[in-house]
Amino acid sequence: MSEQDTIERTDVPITTEKLETDLRNIGVSAGDTVLVHSSLSALGWVSGGAPAVVDALQSVITENGTLVMPTHTSGHSNPESWQNPPVPENWKDEIRATMTPYRPEITPTRGMGAIPETFRNYPDVVRSRHPHYSFAAWGSDAESAVTDHEYDFGLGEPSPLADVYDRDGTVLLLGAGYDSNTSLHLAEHRGDYEKEIVTDGAPVLEDGDRKWISVEGLDIDDSDFDQVGEAFEKKRPEAITRRQVGNAETVRMSQRELVDFASEWFNRNR
User: Fold this and answer.
1) Please, which of 38, 83, 133, 238 could form a disulfide with 115 given CB 3.0 to 4.6 Å?
2) In whole angstroms, what is the distance from residue 121 CA to residue 137 CA?
3) pLDDT tens for residues 3-20?
4) Which residue has the higher pLDDT, 84 or 172?
């Protein structure tokens, strides 16, 4: 969506103050642990852009809470598996040999949108070490939320997703859909159904030196996430709140109830 399209569908500019009011109205409070998935364009034309959204979230949650966002970097992976787009076969060895290592402080997100990319650069934000599935966090428990992020099964245990679960945190789909809801990947790991394990790789820094590592994980699948979300909202209406934040249809939900429901749903439907 172009900026002109966003302007044309926005009646008045969306301000930080407006976002703060809307976030409180949907139930976000000081001291909460909140995992945010977001779409800047869905919010309407925001005065100040992505920083205004981050400012609003931090203002409402406060330093007594913990704000978490996915900051994934799918490009730091084995080019053998790249499909969107693929690269020529005769490039792949050189890519693996020369790709710069993942560095939490500087490596940009890929395909995550403007809000997480802005958030990862904010003061006092810390980011996990996973070269594919990093998360960034800010607030009272930021360090502990992202510290123990294992390379293998990076959306399972231990990961920031499991940390949010342990803290009984909430998920905020801020103009985003269930297909963006990474907590459902945690439910995949916890579900009891036949799974496939895949091996990928990534360049990382260890003791200051670049090293290519192998990374194991589930062959994750988000093709049924919208179905899971629809079933969850139907069966657990008390676990969700749906409101407008800016111009965006937004859902706030209990992450723990979502993960528990979805793992059972996967058991029955996969």
Assistant:
1) 38
2) 11
3) 888 888 888 999 999 999
4) 172
